[in-house]
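Saturday, quiet lab. Running sequence design on the C-alpha cells for the scaffold JK sent over.
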C-alpha cells in the first residue's frame, strides 16, 4: 500500500503549494491544489468501496486521485498529460511497484472525460473530479462571482453506494442563497453528470440537500426541469 507515503511526501505537498500560489497569481476562481486532491480522493474511495473493490485496487485508485492535477504547476494548458508523465516518473523514482499502474496512469491522463470505459478507475476519478464543488475549492476571486460564490457554503459532499442505490448528499450551511446557487449554470450540468455516471454503471441515483430531497435534481432526472 503506497497511498499514505504519496499523500505525505514533501515533494508532492510543495508542488501543490506552488499550484496554489500560481492560481492566486493568475486570479483563478477555483483551486486545483491539495484540498481538491484530498476531496477527490475521499470521493473515489467511497465509490469504489460501494462497488466492492478490494483494498489494493482502492489504494492505487486513491493515488491516481491524489496526483490527477499535479501537473498544474506549470498552468492549465496540457496539465493532464503533464500529470501523467509526472506520476509515471514518480513511481519509477520511488520504486513503487503498482499492481494497477496502467489503470492509474490512464485515469490521471483522462480525468477530464466522463465516458464509458473498461477502466472503472478512470470513470470514477472523472466523476469524483467533477463532483468536488466544496467551498474550499474557491479562491477569493471565485468568492466574488455571483452564483459561484454560493459554493462556499457547501461544507461537504457525502456518498453512499449500497447495492445499486447511489445517494449523494450536499451538506450546505444555512446561509446559502439556494435560488442563486440553483440559477448558477454549473448546477444543472452537475446534476446531469450524476445521472450520466449512474447510467454508465447501472445505478439508481438520488441527491439530497442536507436531509431533504434536492428537488431540482429529481426534476432534471425526470425531464421536467425548465430553465
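Result came back. Writing it out in full:
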Amino acid at each position: 500500500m503506497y497511498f499514505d507515503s504519496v499523500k505525505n511526501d514533501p515533494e508532492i505537498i510543495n508542488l501543490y503549494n506552488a499550484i496554489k500560489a500560481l492560481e492566486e497569481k493568475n486570479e483563478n476562481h477555483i483551486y486545483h491544489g491539495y484540498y481538491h486532491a484530498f476531496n477527490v480522493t475521499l470521493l473515489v474511495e467511497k465509490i469504489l468501496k460501494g462497488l466492492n473493490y478490494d483494498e489494493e485496487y482502492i489504494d492505487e485508485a486513491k493515488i491516481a486521485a491524489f496526483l490527477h492535477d499535479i501537473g498544474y504547476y506549470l498552468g492549465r494548458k496540457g496539465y493532464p498529460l503533464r500529470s501523467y508523465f509526472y506520476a509515471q516518473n514518480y513511481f519509477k523514482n520511488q520504486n513503487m511497484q503498482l499492481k494497477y499502474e496502467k489503470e492509474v496512469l490512464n485515469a490521471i491522463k483522462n480525468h477530464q472525460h466522463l465516458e464509458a470505459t473498461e477502466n472503472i478507475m478512470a470513470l470514477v476519478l472523472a466523476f469524483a473530479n467533477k463532483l468536488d464543488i466544496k467551498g474550499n475549492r474557491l479562491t477569493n476571486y471565485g468568492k466574488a462571482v455571483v452564483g459561484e460564490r454560493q459554493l462556499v457554503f457547501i461544507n461537504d459532499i457525502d456518498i453512499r453506494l449500497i447495492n445499486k442505490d447511489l445517494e449523494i448528499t450536499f451538506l450546505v450551511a444555512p446561509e446559502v442563497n439556494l435560488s442563486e446557487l440553483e440559477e448558477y449554470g454549473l448546477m444543472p450540468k452537475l446534476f446531469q453528470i450524476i445521472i450520466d455516471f449512474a447510467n454508465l454503471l447501472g445505478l439508481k441515483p438520488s441527491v439530497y440537500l442536507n436531509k431533504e430531497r434536492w428537488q431540482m435534481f429529481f426534476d432534471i432526472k425526470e425531464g421536467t426541469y425548465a430553465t
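Notes for JK: The longest strand covers residues 154-162. The chain has a mean pLDDT of 95. Ask whether to fix the surface positions before the next round.
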